[in-house]
Amino acid sequence: MVKDKPHLNLVIIGHIDHGKSTMMGCMLIKTGAVTDREARELEKLAKEYDRESWSYAYVFDRLKEERQRGITIDLAFRKFETESKYFTIIDAPGHADFVKNMITGASQADAAILVVSGKKGEMEVGVAANGQTREHAYLAQTLGVKQLVVAINKADNWEYSEERYNECKDAISDLLKTIGFPVKTINFVPTSGMTGENLAEKSDKLSWYKGPTLLEAIDSFVIPEKPTNKPLRVPIQDAYKIKGTGVVPVGRVETGILKTGDKIIIKPTGFQGEIRSIEMHHEEIKEALPGDNIGFSIRGIEMKDVGRGDCMGHPSNPPTVINPSGSWTGQIIVIWHPTALAQGYTPVIHAHTAQIAAKFASLDKKLDQKTGTVIEDNPKFIKKNEAAIVTLQPIKKMCLEKYTEIPEMGRFAVRDMGRTVAVGIVKEIKSE
Ligand code: GDP
Description:
It is a single chain. The chain is of the alpha+beta class. The protein folds into 3 domains: 7-219, P-loop containing nucleotide triphosphate hydrolases (Rossmann fold, 3-Layer(aba) Sandwich), CATH 3.40.50; 234-313, Elongation Factor Tu (Ef-tu), domain 3 (Beta Barrel), CATH 2.40.30.10; 321-430, Translation factors (Elongation Factor Tu (Ef-tu), domain 3, Beta Barrel). 19% of the residues lie in helices and 33% in strands. The protein has helices spanning 20-30, 36-48, 56-68, 98-103, 122-127, 132-142, 162-179, 214-219, and strands at residues 7-13, 79-81, 86-90, 111-117, 147-153, 187-190, 234-242, 246-252, 258-259, 263-267, 271-280, 283-285, 287-288, 293-298, 311-313, 321-322, 327-334, 341-342, 348-351, 354-367, 374-377, 381-382, 387-394, 398-399, 411-416, 419-430. A 6-stranded mixed beta sheet has the order 2-3-1-4-5-6, with helices on both faces. Strand 25 and strand 26 (419-430) form a beta hairpin. The termini are far apart. The structure holds guanosine-5'-diphosphate. The site of guanosine-5'-diphosphate has 17 residues, from helix 1.
């Protein structure tokens, strides 16, 4: 693995059974991320697990099984490289932690492969009102995934037909357009994850197709620029008291640049001080950039001054705080709820490293998911798959930013009963 190639986080999305695991298993083998020997070992393992047949999906599914059994996942199985980049495959939206990880920045997907089965009936089910092709594409857009490639999959099943490809491409284009993706720049690659058609090599069975292979398409993704020119925001993950050093807060730089000697402020506590030293991977560094996980020491800081969920910035442009007497308006999509959300509902909000209960003070507008236009003012309820503008009031001080200004700090998840009920972005803030 060449570590100095630029890196992208990739998420594989799409309706269940459209062939995501099979395709990723095949890709990992084709790119050499899993060697032939490892593949044979996996095959043996698959047999021991009493699976009927060996398939590429097993390579990828092994990740899921390991996760279920709580074993640390071998990272090698989640990384692969192309000509110019290397990729980490992150949790898929089917996984419980996906949305939360995206929101809290634990694993921000930069790009996505949307796998759509072209098999008769399957594509149609995916794009239908309750389909996961639709749901996942919407989530990806809301959570800031800007780059996308579409694999029109299972080509062996639809006899490599150009006509069927066009039918699928048109339907998916319409869907993506209404969600707000720049369809003109998106590649639609006809593939078979089972036989490897158009994954790493051009398929002669699909000679009418003139575009890139799937690997070429993801190789052409652009590496997002680090948001170094935005105000400094470091959400605090934790703080430790270390003998001889004092209190060491740790966190990830989301935006801006932090240097030793910088004057800083921590919100909502209001503590101000000066950065004495910064550490990353146990080494002292002079400056930290977005994406860096760091620990740092500050003269005079005590445990009461800093904790999980707080946010550090420069005093000239401090993190925004919402007081319990204030509120924010959010645009949300309800992903799951047994009944419906109503005014007064007070679940836990997860945003960056903060987890704070907040009340739905009002339901302001129900929106058409497809067009974003208002379909109802002051709705009484919002249900699964519905989008809305709502006003939320935190029960204690909370750091958030407008999504248009600092997107990294402007996303949130609504959690209840151990599940993600909704995801949203911050539209407006009333501090108090
Ligand atoms: P996932 O739920 O999206 O991860 O889908 P899987 O990879 O588990 O595949 C679901 C089903 O579709 C399995 O029965 C696969 O054997 C089948 N399948 C996956 N890829 C292909 C393909 O390219 N062609 C055909 N004909 N079947 C496929």
